[in-house]
Design a protein that fits this description.
The complex is a heterodimer of chains A (about 425) and B (about 140).
Chain A: H1 7-10, H2 14-35, H3 37-46, H4 67-72, E1 86-91, E2 101-105, H5 106-122, E3 130-133, H6 142-153, E4 156-159, H7 165-174, E5 179-182, H8 184-196, E6 208-212, H9 218-228, E7 231-237, E8 244-249, E9 256-258, E10 263-268, E11 281-288, E12 299-308, E13 320-321, E14 326-327, E15 332-334, E16 337-339, H10 341-350, E17 357-364, E18 367-375, H11 385-403, E19 408-412, E20 419-420, E21 423-424, E22 427-429, H12 431-434
Parallel strand pairs in A: 3-4, 3-5, 5-6, 6-7, 17-22, 18-19
Antiparallel strand pairs in A: 1-2, 7-8, 8-9, 9-13, 10-11, 11-12, 12-13, 12-14, 15-16, 17-18, 20-21
Chain B: E1 2-11, H1 16-26, E2 31-38, E3 42-49, H2 52-58, E4 65-75, H3 81-91, E5 96-103, E6 110-116, H4 119-128, H5 136-141
The chains are: A alpha/beta (about 425), B alpha+beta (about 140).
The structure holds zinc ion.
Zinc ion (ZN) binds near residues 250, 252, 257, 312 and 316 of chain A.
């Protein structure tokens, strides 16, 4: 049974969607050119004028924006309106370099929350639901986005924010929460904690979960669904484009519908910047279509995924993106297969290991080798050799399933992987030495 | 009585074993017995020492250190003493994960350290068969 928040938009015909996009992109480019000097300079340098953009087909003429541009333009360089029109900022965690600060007018907030509302309704949400939001509130977009979407749908919203699992469980049980919004790893943790406290999956009233903001696997989805007795839905977004809700999963659970009336998506070759045809694996690029304060044109997300316009069982017509398979800037090609450190990290976390690992890629007899060194926690190691080897073998099998190629896994003692400035060096590619 | 063995997870790197043993001797602890198991990726150093707490403290920053219960059984000074002990355990369907031997410094007696899959059962059976085993206090006093 399919539910829509805005059926006329969500199930519009291809032609209708294109008409909306074509009308909006002309205005959006004009708005950016007139108000954002940073991007105007990029367009001028490329010799592109706003008049050259007559439809979404012309988007490919526009220059790209990257994370580096956002850092360079920090904090106001990409602002598209007067600060007096802005009502909010949100920000990234800034773990790698300078933070990204995104600005919002009330129009931008409404647009964002509407996208989140579509995601909640797609997960079965109505005004009779109790929606527990345990994404972080504050600068992080997770909490505010789902909170706003939940309000728009009319759910009773529990603005829990993250952490304090005992309190999460108390509210979940006492107030009969029906929809859970958090990161997949936290959902898994809540599931484990409920089991430890003696609850069975059918003891809670949850029916659905909306999980995002970190990579997770299909296995993890099944395990969360089982432990909480729910259906688990993926949601995608990034602070640069607004926040969660740029794309969301429907009842088909096979990719996320991109809200195409607000965001135009392209897949490009990360090396050449060339636009790739539908179905190709490449870097996802977003162009906002109707944002006021922080309108980004051709923003390179660095997420690698595939777009498909195949007809969806839910009745929505918006293009679907696959779960991101990794980041373009740390993609490795090993024996012809694309491998991302994030995939390896996901397997380790799923199997209960630390994310302290090192990948060594080499070439022996003209064939690529992949070795993964994984730090054990003291209590994960056994004094019996065979036990440790069994752990290595089972990790190798899990890695092969995820990556499509078989690595050698080596367990190593705690703190044995060299760290630089507190962070482990993730990838050592020795092939470059031989070339 | 079971005794506590200390197992140290070692990187397969040159000098790692020497470094670890040196740290233990610097802590003023005597090693009563040891056994090293080597694999492609790591080594496991198993130790019976005069003071396990000091060893754990001395090695706290050098990787994984875990305590394990093992049995140190005394072997009579006769031919077939070891096979007698192994036969008792085999008859009781107790699996031996690994074992190693050492000589007591004071009594010059021969001991076999046994890591089995069911330590309490092995202790009971050996005791019933008249095999004497060491306690942690015995090891400390050696
Ligand atoms: Zn769908």
């Amino acid at each position: 049974m399919a539910n829509y928040y805005q059926p006329e938009i969500e199930t519009a015909s291809r032609e209708e969607i294109l008409a909306i996009q074509n009308e909006k992109i002309v205005k959006q480019v004009k708005h950016v050119y007139e108000n954002v000097k940073y991007y105007r300079d990029l367009m001028d340098a490329k010799g592109v004028k706003p008049e050259d953009i007559k439809s979404v087909d012309d988007i490919k003429k526009l220059p790209f924006l990257s994370k580096a541009d956002l850092r360079e333009a920090y904090p106001y360089g990409l602002l598209g309106t007067d600060l007096k029109n802005c009502v909010r900022i949100q920000s990234t965690s800034g773990t790698t370099g300078k933070r990204v600060v995104a600005f919002y007018t009330q129009h931008d907030i409404d647009l964002w929350e509407e996208c989140c509302a579509r995601a909640i309704v797609a997960a079965g949400g109505t005004n009779e639901d109790v929606c527990q939001v345990c994404y972080g509130y504050g600068l992080f977009t997770g909490g505010p986005g789902l909170n706003g979407g939940s309000h728009k749908v009319g759910c009773l919203t529990l603005p829990m924010s993250s952490g304090n699992t005992d309190r999460q469980i108390q509210f979940m049980m006492d107030l009969n929460a029906t929809i859970l919004c958090c990161t997949p790893s936290y959902a898994a943790y809540i599931g484990e904690t409920l089991a430890e406290q003696g609850y069975k999956p059918e003891d809670n009233k949850l029916k659905a979960g909306i999980f995002g903001a970190e990579p997770w696997t299909e296995e993890m989805r099944r395990s969360i669904e089982k432990s909480l007795g729910i259906k688990a839905y993926d949601i995608y977004g990034l602070t640069e484009t607004s926040g969660p809700g740029v794309a969301f999963e429907c009842c088909a659970q096979s990719g996320m519908h991109i809200n195409e009336d607000h965001f135009y998506a392209e897949i490009i070759d990360p090396d050449t910047g060339e636009v790739l045809p539908e179905g190709s694996k490449g870097e996802l690029v977003f162009t906002s279509l109707d944002k006021e304060a922080f309108p980004l044109l051709r923003y390179r997300t660095r997420d690698i995924c595939v777009l498909t316009r195949e007809k969806c069982a839910c009745g929505r017509t918006h293009v679907k993106m696959s779960k991101p398979m990794g980041r373009s800037d740390d993609m490795m090609i090993i024996r012809g297969v694309n491998v991302f450190p994030s995939q390896i990290e996901t397997v380790l976390l799923n199997e209960g290991y630390t994310p302290n690992y090192q990948i060594v890629v080499d070439r022996v007899n003209n064939s690529d080798t992949l070795d993964i060194y994984v730090e054990l926690l003291p209590d994960q190691f056994s004094d019996i050799v065979a036990e440790n080897q069994k752990k290595e073998r089972s990790l190798e099998i899990a890695m092969r399933t995820m990556l499509g190629i078989g690595p050698k896994v080596h367990l190593v003692p705690p703190h044995s992987i060299v760290r630089s400035e507190g962070k482990a060096v993730r990838v050592i590619d020795k092939r470059k030495l031989h070339d | 009585m079971a005794i506590q063995q200390i197992s140290v997870f070692l990187e397969n790197k040159e000098g790692r074993l020497a470094e670890t043993v040196q740290k233990i001797s610097q802590a003023g602890v005597n090693i009563r017995a040891l056994c090293v198991a080597d694999t492609r990726d790591f080594g496991i150093l198993r130790l019976i020492t005069s003071d396990n707490a000091k060893v754990k403290a001395a090695l706290s920053d050098s990787g994984a250190v875990i305590p394990t219960d093992v049995i140190a059984a005394k072997m009579d000074d006769t031919a077939g003493a070891l096979s007698g002990i192994l036969q008792i355990l085999a008859d009781a369907k107790i699996n031996i994960e690994y074992m190693y031997a050492f000589t007591g410094a004071a009594d010059l007696g021969a001991y076999v350290v046994l890591r089995v899959d069911n330590t309490p059962a092995a202790e009971t059976i050996l005791k019933a068969a008249g095999v004497s085993t060491l306690s942690d206090a015995d090891v400390a006093a050696m």
